[in-house]
Amino acid sequence: MVKSGVLELVPVADIELDRTNPRIRKFLEFYVEQPTSDQIYLALGAAGDEEGESSTSFEKLKNSILTNGGIIHPVILNRRADGTLVCIEGNTRVAIYKNFLKENVPGNWQVIPALVHSEMDENQADAIRLQVHLVGTRAWDPYSKAKYLHHLRNQEQLPFSKIVDFCGGRQKDVLESINAFSEMEAYYRPVVPDDGSFDTSRFSGFVELQKPGVKEAIAKAGFDLSDFAKWIHDEKLYPLYTVRWLTRILAHPKAREIFLKQNAKKAMEALDRPDLNKALGDANIEQLSQALSRAIYALPWTEAERLRKDPGSELGQTLGETLTALTGLLNATGTGA
Amino acid sequence: MAESSQHAALVQIIVGYIKREHATVTALGIVDDLSSAIGAEKPNRIEGFVPDVYAFDAPRTTTIIGEAKTKDDLETERSKKQIAAFLSHLRYQDAGVFIMAVPWQVKRRAQAIVSTLQKAAGAASVTTVTLDDLGP
User: Which residue of A has its CA nearest to B93?
Assistant: First the structure.
């Protein structure tokens, strides 16, 4: 069993980063000799997390530490028998402090709050890593996050720039989240029969609604956001990513009719799609990827130029959809760059 | 001035204008297309085109699109399609604002182009602003 450590403010210069940290081990295996602090910092920046947005989340953490003037959760250190300190949990945060010190970023980065354990053995270190990274804390669902942001903005009147800074500087995400929450409350709540039927897992449909083109498509087709909320409630837009197909569905008379009678997935089948011959239909994703890469490399300049001039063309839209699907797959499987 | 640095300077003029003129919109987020850093926030694509600047607030009361054009780029077919797409998008927003920044020599021409495209897009409700590089 892991004993509790002692809370201390520890000089950052005294802390060794953990070279065996599972998050970065795959990167550090490239180095024959002991990696330097800079190389570890680079590896921490490149290493992924579950979101598959490694660099983004690293930057978010960095911005958040900068805004808060420090960290909220202490890091976990092990004091070895010879008195040296190694970081068991919180290597990225320690590395960010070290980097701030090196770059003379204004602030107190000399010491870091830490729970210091004494002569912890490898099993105890593993137990901590497992609890933090494999079990972890329970993340809030997106609706609850948005509700809290909305509360901070509209009830607590916290300045917008402050909220954005606390969230790691992603202002577009914060705005879309607050607007999605407002619209879900304004339009979805009235269409559900009672509070118990209010399904917060439908929130991502309202996040998709914030993407350019969706509201315009709804308005152009003569509908409004109450109709949209009903479609969400009636599961016409299910799975929720089908919201992003609305622009094409509502602009296509046949698809629109099918959508209103059935749902978005059925409607998509009615959209004009090129006939896929048998060979294409039977090809696996690897073959299709290779063929697509070759076709891109062999694309005539005139066609590339046409695409550049008119990215809203059918080809432009199809490529955009392919990119979205591909990025989603790579992120979900952790194989993305 | 090289074309790309001139374009970047024009984008900064738009951002400065939004910060100055829309300072009363308290929760206004301004995203521009200048940063090349990985993971940097970029404006959303609108009908295939990425605007140079996109700003909106929460709850949504204002939507602003800014586009910078150099002299050579102003009259191209692509630019016209792009501006038409942005105006069409703004038409469906409450208090949509389209800001164009161009070198001072072509400011009048830019105003004429935007005005024509605005009529064609039925976007009379959109407020349009044309800025130049001579400063306020």
Answer: A216
User: Contact, A43 vs A28, CB < 8 A?
Assistant: yes
A113 is written with which tokens? 């709050």
Paired strand residues for A15? A85
Task: Give the number of other Cβ atoms within 10 Å of residue A74's Cβ.
Answer: 19
Q: Is B23 on the interface with A (CB under 8 A)?
A: no
- Output the furthest CA–CA distance in chain B (Å, rounded): 40
B76 min Cα distance to partner chain A (Å): 9
State the ipTM, two decimals: 0.77
Tell me if B101 sits within 8 A of B92, measured CB to CB.
Answer: no
Q: How far is CA B66 from the centre of its chain?
A: 1
The C-alpha atoms of residue B90 and residue B126 are separated, in whole angstroms, by 6
pTM for the full predicted model: 0.67
pLDDT tens for residues A272-324?
A: 666 666 778 788 888 888 889 888 888 888 888 888 877 777 788 778 778 87
DSSP letter for each residue of chain B: --HHHHHHHHHHHHHHHHHHHTTT-TTEEEEES---STT---PPPBTTB--SEEEEESS---EEEEEE--HHHHTSHHHHHHHHHHHHHHHTSTTEEEEEEE-GGGHHHHHHHHHHHHHHTT-TTSEEEEEETT--
